[in-house]
């Protein structure tokens, strides 16, 4: 890490703290040459491989944007979308890979979105699971109904 004041190529870590979300580390540093102090924020990089082959950094905002379209007209808040995007990022990071395909991110969205809003889930799933017929929708709705029934049975136990 180069010193932002004198451009010296070394620095000493004075203090390290984990961020609130646990996904980054804030380090307080000091330059041994000029004595200047500065902070850095370190995160593990996570890159997305797009269908075109282009690689770009993971973006929670892009997750929220894609899900926002499926949630149009539904009772879903921006806060709900932010929580969902964070859950997706955490799930993707837990895979331990540094590069992930966009389709895998779409599939990682399905579980949290299903819990958030079933209609938005169906809209989103129809794209990422490539629904082609009414039977595909019917099957997905049947699975939602089964899950709802199982949840009700467990709640009644």
From TrEMBL:
PROSITE patterns: ATP_CONE (PS51161)
InterPro entries: ATP-cone_dom, NrdR-like_N, RNR_NrdR-like
Residues annotated as domain ATP-cone: 46-136
Highest taxon above the source species: Bacteria
The record's free-text note on cofactor binding: Binds 1 zinc ion.
Keyword Ribonucleoprotein carried by entry: no
Keywords on record: ATP-binding, DNA-binding, Metal-binding, Nucleotide-binding, Repressor, Transcription, Transcription regulation, Zinc, Zinc-finger
Zinc finger (unnamed): 3-34
Names of the cofactor(s): Zn(2+)
Pfam families xref list: ATP-cone, Zn_ribbon_NrdR
Parts of the chain that traverse the membrane: none
Function: Negatively regulates transcription of bacterial ribonucleotide reductase nrd genes and operons by binding to NrdR-boxes.
Entry similarity comment: Belongs to the NrdR family.
Protein name in UniProt: Transcriptional repressor NrdR
Primary gene name: nrdR
